[in-house]
Amino acid sequence: MATIELKHEISPEEEMLSVFERNEETSEPQTQKLRETPEDIKQEAIINSLAFHPKEDILAAGDVDGDIYLYRYSCNDGENKELWSSGHHLKSCRKVAFTSDGEKLFSVSKDKAVHIMDVVAGKLVKRIPKAHSKPINALLLVDENVVATGDDEGTLKVWDMRKSTSFMSLKHHEDYISDIVADPAKRTLLTSSGDGTMGVINLKKRRFELLSEIQDGDLTSVSIMKHGRKVVCGSSEGMLYIFNWNGFGATSDRFALQAETVDCIVPITDSILCTGSMDGVIRAVNILPNRVVGSVGQHIGEPVEEIACSWDKRFLASCAHDQLIKFWDISGLFAMRVNDYRQQKKKDGRLKALSNKAFGGVGDFFSGLLDVNEPNRTEDSDEEDDGESERD
């Protein structure tokens, strides 16, 4: 005898309740905390160099033991992840840099070698041993085939990586090369050095052109600002030296920060750069008009080794002698405008906090902007530059 099934008609209320029950079963517990910045990354040794991947939330770090680490970072609590580590360098890794496509990672070391790692596999794909006769300190990837390196005794080499050979070797500095930059056209290389000078190299003609006048202290870093019209060098004496493009012989302006040193600089916008110093403070500085606009963050009492800006310009990463990699929110710097008139110092002498993680963190990024601290500076005459009034 056939069994007759009774069909139960589902009411709209029951159907809605069933949907809620299914959602509850499939949904994950909402326990994950979203942070303003990624968590600090604790290292076993002091980090010398940082580099952000050009397209993804990935950070590379090289330490004093010669190890290289690759991390995926996230603002989700607990989701920073080490992707791989490499111990191929025999001595301190001093600089790391990604290729423009993000597929390879270059590194240079005190062991005088240049290494190239496969980013996905975490494997060494090329090694140039004894690339210099002295420890290598500076690295710049000019394009996908051309790489520049600088060593502890002032020698600059430019390499054709298709052949793994250098086609230019220049000894124009008397002390270590601290930093190298290239103009957007890839025609000119600029080098900063511990001998207090900036070097100018014509890359297309493959020749050294000139040295700047000797400045006070070591020149620790170099960056191109103001749509390519200005070059800024940091100094171990806490000074920023500003050069006009095509006027590299002598500075057009100089700006003393209230910091013992300027050990590293990174451009954030065309007018604002960030500096790292021995006092552990990371400052945001506007160039022309020259003004410290505030503190991005700090490593309390620990010298800052290097700072780097993320691919999406949202974060600044910093490393210091506290063996921490820290992340700072710099997104507000892009909307900042500094008025071109002299401002009064704050009576308490403190820097304006530009993020909630900086000392004296604020909820309103722009509150009190007109009261920010202004260090002493030397004055030059005003000149017109490409239709824009600036102090040259």
UniProtKB/TrEMBL annotation:
<protein>
    <recommendedName>
        <fullName>WD repeat-containing protein 55</fullName>
    </recommendedName>
</protein>
<feature type="compositionally biased region" description="Acidic residues">
    <location>
        <begin position="380"/>
        <end position="392"/>
    </location>
</feature>
<keyword id="KW-0698">rRNA processing</keyword>
<dbReference type="GO" id="GO:0005730">
    <property type="term" value="C:nucleolus"/>
</dbReference>
<feature type="region of interest" description="Disordered">
    <location>
        <begin position="367"/>
        <end position="392"/>
    </location>
</feature>
<dbReference type="InterPro" id="IPR050505">
    <property type="entry name" value="WDR55/POC1"/>
</dbReference>
<dbReference type="GO" id="GO:0006364">
    <property type="term" value="P:rRNA processing"/>
</dbReference>
<comment type="similarity">
    <text>Belongs to the WD repeat WDR55 family.</text>
</comment>
<keyword id="KW-0539">Nucleus</keyword>
<feature type="repeat" description="WD">
    <location>
        <begin position="129"/>
        <end position="169"/>
    </location>
</feature>
<keyword id="KW-0677">Repeat</keyword>
<dbReference type="InterPro" id="IPR036322">
    <property type="entry name" value="WD40_repeat_dom_sf"/>
</dbReference>
<dbReference type="InterPro" id="IPR015943">
    <property type="entry name" value="WD40/YVTN_repeat-like_dom_sf"/>
</dbReference>
<dbReference type="InterPro" id="IPR017422">
    <property type="entry name" value="WDR55"/>
</dbReference>
<dbReference type="Pfam" id="PF24796">
    <property type="entry name" value="WDR55"/>
</dbReference>
<comment type="function">
    <text>Nucleolar protein that acts as a modulator of rRNA synthesis. Plays a central role during organogenesis.</text>
</comment>
<dbReference type="InterPro" id="IPR001680">
    <property type="entry name" value="WD40_rpt"/>
</dbReference>
<keyword id="KW-0853">WD repeat</keyword>
